[in-house]
Design brief:
By secondary structure, the chain is mainly alpha-helical. It is built from six helices and no strands. α2 packs antiparallel against α3, α3 runs antiparallel to α4 and α4 runs antiparallel to α5.
C-alpha cells in the first residue's frame, strides 16, 4: 500500500490532468451551471490563496499551523476539492460527479497518508501533536484554534509563486466552459 500511495502522490497532477480532459469532453455547461459552479471555484481559489500564503516549503524549521492550517491539515487539497467540484457542477453532467468523488478520495487519501509519514519523520513530536489537534481534511471551526509557538506572516510572494499556474489553468478551463455553454446553448 505504501508504494501505491507514493505512486499516486507522484502522479496525481498527471492523473488529474487526464481526468480533466475527460471531464471537458463530457461537459455540457449551461449559464446556470456555470453560475452555480463558480461559487465553488471561488471558494477553492480563496482557500488555496489563504493556505499558500502561510505555507513556506523553503524551510523545514517548523510545522505550519497558521491561517487555515489551524483548522485543517490539508487546506490546499480542500481548496482543490472545491475547485474540482465547481468545475464538475459547471459541466452539468452527473456521471463525472460520482467519478470525481471516488477518484478524489483515492488520489488525495494516498497522497495525504504518504505526506503524513514524511512530515512525521521530518518534525517528529511537534507534527504528531499538531496532528492530534487538527483534523486531516474536513475543517473544524473551534473558537480557539491551537496557538502556534511562533507567528509567520502571510506572504503574497509565496501565493503568486505557487498559484500562478493554477490561476492560468482555472482561467483556461473557465473560458472553455463558457465557450462550450454558448455553443450548446445559443
Amino acid at each position: 500500500m505504501e508504494k501505491f500511495n507514493k505512486w499516486i502522490g507522484h502522479y496525481r497532477t498527471f492523473l488529474s490532468f487526464c481526468l480533466a480532459v475527460l471531464f471537458l469532453f463530457l461537459a455540457r455547461p449551461t449559464p446556470i451551471s456555470i453560475g452555480l459552479g463558480i461559487v465553488f471555484v471561488f471558494l477553492g481559489v480563496v482557500l488555496r490563496i489563504w493556505a499558500s500564503g502561510y505555507l513556506n516549503k523553503d524551510t523545514h524549521d517548523y510545522v505550519t499551523v497558521f491561517g487555515p492550517y489551524a483548522y485543517t491539515r490539508n487546506p490546499l487539497y480542500l481548496g482543490n476539492f472545491f475547485l474540482g467540484l465547481g468545475f464538475i457542477v459547471m459541466g452539468s453532467h452527473w456521471f463525472p460527479l460520482f467519478l470525481y468523488f471516488v477518484l478524489f478520495f483515492v488520489i488525495y487519501r494516498s497522497t495525504i497518508l504518504d505526506e503524513e509519514k514524511l512530515l512525521t519523520g521530518m518534525f517528529g513530536n511537534p507534527y504528531l501533536e499538531y496532528r492530534s489537534k487538527v483534523p486531516r481534511f474536513f475543517p473544524h471551526f473551534k473558537l480557539n484554534p491551537p496557538a502556534p509557538s511562533l507567528t509567520v506572516p502571510f506572504s503574497w510572494n509565496q501565493v503568486t509563486r505557487r498559484e500562478i499556474r493554477a490561476w492560468f489553468g482555472i482561467a483556461v478551463i473557465l473560458a472553455y466552459l463558457i465557450y462550450k455553454a454558448r455553443v450548446f446553448n445559443p
